[in-house]
Amino acid sequence: MNPLPFNIVLFQPEIPNNTGAVGRICVGTGSLLHLVRPLGFRIDDKAVRRAGLDYWKDVELRVHDSLKEALATADRVHYFSTKGARLYTDCSFQPGDYLVFGRETAGLPRELLARRREDSYTIPIWGPIRSHNLANAVAIIIYEAFRQVGFPPKTGDLPSAGQMP
Ligand SMILES: C[S@@+](CC[C@H](N)C(=O)[O-])C[C@H]1O[C@@H](n2cnc3c(N)ncnc32)[C@H](O)[C@@H]1O
Fold first, then answer.
1. Quick one: which atom of ligand 1 is closest to the CA of 121?
2. Ligand 1 pocket, 125 CB below 6 A?
3. Among 60, 51, 2, CA closest to 27
4. Quick one: which of 53, 55, 58, 47 has its CA closest to 13?
5. Under a CB-based contact definition with an 8 Å cutoff, are residues 126 and 29 in contact?
6. Range 7-163 classified under CATH 3.40.1280.10
7. Rounded to the nearest 5°, which phi and psi values hold at 146?
8. 78 CA distance to ligand 1 middle (Å)
9. What DSSP state is assigned to residue 30?
10. Strand-strand pairing, 77-80 and 120-122
11. What's the CA gap between 74 and 8, in Å, rounded?
């Protein structure tokens, strides 16, 4: 596994199923999961475990009282929002980066996005929805991040797209 995994930060998540699904993504990609309180559920909520399946116990989880605490040792932080100023594919990812996602209802605080405008990114949407599901947004971003830095060796044996039947 990558020695410097990515850090997924969920700011005040509200829906247990989403956090469970993100936990599963984190286990699958060797990423650390940071949750910023208040949470809209208990960490041992059945719904979290159900969505994370039996992988939930394997999640490298840190729970923080504030975003400041969650990012205390972060060098590089990227923020993801429907109101992000830049396209997510223009974000230059490096192992160890912190990737911050907002609440299901309200997203990330407006003043935070205004302050960190240059580090805020959006996934384009052209159909009639306001946003992506939180876990789907995390999946899109983490795989773009790994595409840029290279997938860890386990996938190295896969045929390249051109060799696929
Ligand atoms: C359900 S969305 C929040 C919707 C909220 N009304 C907003 O506009 O930010 C939950 C989180 O998923 C991520 N997300 C969802 N759609 C996104 C998009 N198109 N671009 C970037 N991030 C997105 C963001 O981190 C967002 O805060």
1. 21
2. yes
3. 60
4. 47
5. no
6. yes
7. -70, -30
8. 13
9. T
10. parallel
11. 12
- Give SS3 for 122: strand
pLDDT tens, position by position, for the chain (165 residues)? 556 799 999 999 999 999 999 999 999 999 999 999 999 999 887 877 777 678 899 999 999 999 999 999 999 999 999 999 999 999 999 999 999 999 999 999 999 999 999 999 999 999 999 999 999 999 999 999 999 999 988 755 555 555 554
Indicate whether residue 136 lines ligand 1 (CB < 6 A). Answer: no
Residue nearest (by alpha carbon) to ligand 1 atom 4: 107
Q: What b/e sequence results for 40-66 when a residue is b if at least 16 CB atoms lie within 10 Å of its CB, and e otherwise?
A: ebeeebeebbebbeebbeebeeeebee
CA-proximal residue: ligand 1, atom 9 (nearest): 107
Cα 66 to Cα 21: distance, rounded to the nearest angstrom: 22
Who's near 67: CB < 8 A, 6+ residues apart?
A: 9, 11, 36, 100, 112
What tokens appear for 101 in the block? Answer: 């996602």
Q: Residues 83, 104: contact at Cβ < 8 Å?
A: no
Cα 18 to chain centroid distance, Å, stands at: 11
| Token representation of residue 107 | 């997203």
